Amino acid sequence: MIQLPEGPWWDWDVVEWNAGRLRLGAGSDLSYHHGLELVFSDPFLVSCPAAFQDPVFREPTPEEMRALSRQTGETPDVVVAFEAAAGGPEPASGLIAAGGLELVRGTVLRYWPGDPVPGDRLAPWVRPPGAG
Question: How many CB atoms lie within 10 A of CB 84?
Fold first, then answer.
């Protein structure tokens, strides 16, 4: 099961998702930045809300593992399961199967700061003014 570092990780969203990578960002207020990323390499099954709060990570159930095996024909290297608030009356379930997982800490800005501070990273969608 996934072990998160200490921190205020109650707000989560999908920062980037393409064929080779799924990046989830977490922080206390995602308006301006996030401080933790779960970077899944080679994701081949993703079922989670685009934004969610207060996830409770758990081991995948035997039924979830059987369904993954049926859908993909293999046993994934990484399987992350969770329940989280996602705006509905009931918690939303999340299930992610991927080739690998890396936890990355550090400030990722969600706006153009003018002069970025060394060490800060910018979210993939952040561009300097006028850069299109």
Answer: 19
Check: CB of residue 26 under 8 Å from CB of residue 37.
yes
Please state the domain extents for the chain: 11-122
Per residue, what are the HEC states of 101-112?
Answer: EEEEEEEEECCC
User: Strand order in 45-47's β-sheet?
Assistant: 45-47, 92-98, 78-85, 51-58, 11-18, 21-27, 33-41, 100-109, 121-122
Half-sphere exposure of 96 (CA within 13 A, CB side): 28
Model-level pTM? 0.90
pLDDT digit string, tens, across residues 13-68: 999 999 999 999 999 999 999 999 999 999 989 999 999 999 999 999 999 999 89
Reported as type and span, the H/E element at residue 37 is strand 33-41
SS3 117: coil
